[in-house]
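Troubleshooting log. The previous run stalled partway through. Resubmitting the same two chains, unchanged.
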Amino acid sequence: MFAFAHQVLSGLAMGSVYASFALAIAMIYQSTRLVNFAQGEMAMFSTYLAWAMINAGLPYWVAFSLTVVLSFVLGAAIERLVIRRFDSAPVLTVVIVFIGLLVIINSVAGWLFTYSIKSFDSPFPESARFGGGYMSPHEMGAIGVTLTMLALIYVFFRFTSLGLAMRAVAQNPVSARLVGIRVGRMLAIGWGLAAAVGAVAGMMAAPIIYLDPNMMSGVLLYGFAAALLGGIDNPWGAVIGGFLVGVLENIAGAYLVGSEIKLSVALAIIIGVLVAKPSGLFGRVIVARV
Amino acid sequence: MTALLETRGLRAYYGQTQALYNVDIAVEDGGVTAVLGANGAGKTTLLRALCAMTRCEGERFFDGEAFNPRAAEDASRMGIAHAPDGRGTFLDLTVDENLRLGGYTRKDRAGVARDLKRVFDYFPRLKERRHQQAGTLSGGEQQMLAISRALMLRPRLLLLDEPSFGLAPLLVKDIFRILAAINREERVAMLIVEQNANLALDLADCAYLLETGRVAFHGPSSVVRADEAVRRVYLGY
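Second attempt completed without errors. Output:
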């Protein structure tokens, strides 16, 4: 029983990382109907920025905050300078642009920081004072940080007028323009927020999966799976999907097949769910009258 | 009275297709102007062209000054509110949130709160449903919401695209009565596009008749109403 609880809880820790990615992906998907394949690499790059700042002697939480702010700026800049140009381009063109971004960011990170794997220290203490050994302090901390961030984002979208404007743009950009909302600016802010969320996820994942330019390839796959499982048009469904995927992955690894092919099992379960419920567990089923 | 809105030689395009040819119209400050015409005459295009929602050329003047909005949000920020074709409801947001968005660009919170009350006075039905998801409203209620959202901007000019579309005749009468009251009490000028020529001419002081993207006829409502051709084609008697 202890072992099972341990697997579930530590699944929640990686799950919180997947949940953040799923949220970032769903946020951009909602306002643009596009899936940002470069989301993982953007987060990886942010994590390197944090690593560089910590190495330069900044205290962890200062580096953390600066990284979040910088990632926001970089994310918004990518939208304004790159994605904006492909506004009315066919979807496949945009997909290629995303893949291009992925490769470029990956290479730039490798060039700047080398491809050797680096360790990334956790800000949380070594030994657990509470939690009864079910989870490591970093796992608990990562879940705490993620939940705090999710709560802040919820409050932002639900209770501020900027958040309301962003929801309006996601839903009906034409109407949003008619009430005077600067749609372009909202899209840039959306990208910035997604990049900031990804940066937090990257910094929480790095102590577990280590830092290297390819660290996000697996994580991003789980993030996509999580978003689809929860319903990509429902950010909160996507978040729940993230936690579910984390737990599924751990349980599959421990009890079903071992860690070598746990990825396959987790994804097989997700495909099973999607076959039965194509819009995801919490997704909206759109019915069109013809 | 002076013209609040004026266009000279307005031409509008959808891609390569030209939809408006040298349209000159004027809306008096505080007045109501109707645009009549059959399906595809360019009525909706005219409203879209005023808000930079479609590519256009020609001159537009607002309040005596040339204006050239680059995007629809610029027109809105000048005080031109648009209750668009299809009503433009934010379906997943509540009625309240839809209305708050209408006043999104305004800085005077007290004024916004006052206008929210005023809008609820005009349309009590919306007040009853203020916490309801806007997508669950009936067509008539969504039209009321579209007009109210536009009013929340406290506009100087209100563009109305077929407020009668798809509504029961009784409800249409109601909405036009309220529009007349709004025009009288708020001194907001209106440019109204309508297929129901009778109702539109009752409300408007002057009217333009569009045919295949051109102004075919225009004048005070009484003159337009008396015109033989208009009567036969658009009024049906």
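Takeaways: The radius of gyration of chain B is 17 Å. Chain B touches chain A at residues 51, 53, 71-73, 76-77, 81-82, 84, 88-93, 97, 100-102, 104-105, 149, 153 (CB under 8 Å).
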